[in-house]
């Protein structure tokens, strides 16, 4: 290859590099939305195929209906939760502060009637309240970080809503042109890897994403529905039960997250004097909502992926830090895909290397 050909090849590489950098800069703001749309489409692809078949092969209508379901199940609850946090957190925290600043709080009557330990509970309560204003100030000060956390959570959710809207728009084209995109990916992966992994990585990626999404968000949806049913039985209004169920859905990826919701509701029932409903909420949370988390989530994840719960939490937390609230949906699948590819790569046998040794003669 002469000097001219070297120069031409170098110029081509420079042009390609410039184009790739330009494409990255253009698409960089939409990467979270693109990944979110990919995760949703991969995990719901069988449902889309059945819907398209029922509609006589109408890909456009089937894609629109799938995106409508995404809007109803994810985007609208996220928006309502963000607006509810922004509107109600300050008022609720201020009301609790006023209540705590009233001085000594009398113990509820049922506490004294508790079998075996009633007297001990009353003495502990009176000792705790003997601090008077000091205890009230301490508890009031502890509410400020909670208030700031909830307000920041509402802001994070609100900022991610635009990404979710873009994801819905992108997802429509992923559904409509899915077969063409999948074929392009197959061709690209085949040329890039040349069968070096010994298996089709796209199949492994599909199984991994499906298992993680079904395990995390399938169990989260089941917990949210169970929580809404329990709150409705306890007499919570329909809108309140819906918002509390949405909070249960999003907090389910955090260890003990749903217990913050039903635990807070039970405390509110105690404050209102509805002791029976407080006990019901606690029992419903322990034996129904938490049971779903303990049994359904591991079963669903094990069907497509063996991603540990630690990696699920790290994926969700790191996703939120990197991409905002939308990262809670795309963090665990991205981490699962990376781990799956590493396992495929490391599971291949290392070709033996023969080292030629010269015969040394004495």
Task: Write up what this structure looks like.
- With 362 residues, this protein is mainly α.
- The chain has a domain at 197-345.
- It is built from 13 helices and no strands.
- Helix 8 (201-233) runs antiparallel to helix 11 (275-304), helix 10 packs antiparallel against helix 11 and helix 12 packs across helix 13 (327-346).
- The longest helix is centred in the middle third of the chain and has 44 residues, at 133-176.
Mind sketching the topology for me?
Elements: H1 3-27, H2 31-54, H3 59-100, H4 109-112, H5 118-129, H6 133-176, H7 178-193, H8 201-233, H9 238-251, H10 257-272, H11 275-304, H12 309-323, H13 327-346
Helix pairs in contact: 2-3, 2-6, 2-8, 2-13, 3-6, 3-9, 8-9, 8-11, 8-13, 9-10, 10-11, 12-13
Structural class: mainly alpha
Beta-strand share of residues: under 5%
Q: How large is the radius of gyration?
A: 27 Å
Helix content: over 70%
- Overall pLDDT score: 75
Order of helices and strands: HHHHHHHHHHHHH
Count of individual helical segments = 13
Count the strands? Answer: 0
Oligomer: single chain
Rounded to the nearest angstrom, the distance between the terminal CA atoms is 46 Å
Low-confidence stretches: 353-362
Biggest sheet features? none
Please tell me what the overall shape is: elongated
Provide a brief overview of the structure.
With 362 residues, this protein is mainly α. Helices cover 81% and strands 0% of the residues.
Based on the model shown, name its key terms.
13 helices, mainly alpha, about 80% helix, about 350 residues, elongated
């Amino acid at each position: 290859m002469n000097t001219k050909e070297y120069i031409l090849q170098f110029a081509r590489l420079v042009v390609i590099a410039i184009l790739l950098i330009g494409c990255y800069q253009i698409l960089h703001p939409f990467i979270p939305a693109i990944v979110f749309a990919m995760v949703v489409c991969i995990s719901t692809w069988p449902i889309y195929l059945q819907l398209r078949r029922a509609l006589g092969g109408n890909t456009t209508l089937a894609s629109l209906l799938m995106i409508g379901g995404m809007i109803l199940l994810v985007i609208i609850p996220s928006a309502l939760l963000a607006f509810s946090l922004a509107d109600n957190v300050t008022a609720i925290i201020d009301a609790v502060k006023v209540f705590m600043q009233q001085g000594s709080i009398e113990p509820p009557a049922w506490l004294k009637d508790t079998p075996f330990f009633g007297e001990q509970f009353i003495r502990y309560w009176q000792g705790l309240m003997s601090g008077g204003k000091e205890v009230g100030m301490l508890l009031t000060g502890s509410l400020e970080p909670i208030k700031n956390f909830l307000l920041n959570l509402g802001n994070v959710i609100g900022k991610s809503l635009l990404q979710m809207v873009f994801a819905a728009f992108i997802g429509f084209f992923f559904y409509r042109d899915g077969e063409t995109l999948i074929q392009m990916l197959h061709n690209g992966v085949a040329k890039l890897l040349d069968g070096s992994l010994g298996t089709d990585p796209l199949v492994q990626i599909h199984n991994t994403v499906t298992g993680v999404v079904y395990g995390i968000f399938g169990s989260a949806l089941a917990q949210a529905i169970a929580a809404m049913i329990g709150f409705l039985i306890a007499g919570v209004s329909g809108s309140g039960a819906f918002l509390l169920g949405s909070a249960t859905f999003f907090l389910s990826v955090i260890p003990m997250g749903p217990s913050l919701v039903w635990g807070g509701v039970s405390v509110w029932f105690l404050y209102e004097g509805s002791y029976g409903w407080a006990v019901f909420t606690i029992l419903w949370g322990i034996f129904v909502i938490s049971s779903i988390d303990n049994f359904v989530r591991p079963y669903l994840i094990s069907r497509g992926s063996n991603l540990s719960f630690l990696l699920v939490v790290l994926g969700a937390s790191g996703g939120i830090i990197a991409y905002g609230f939308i990262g809670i949906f795309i963090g665990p699948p991205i981490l699962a895909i990376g781990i799956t590819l590493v396992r495929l790569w490391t599971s291949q046998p290392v070709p033996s290397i023969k080292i030629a040794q010269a015969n040394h003669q004495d």
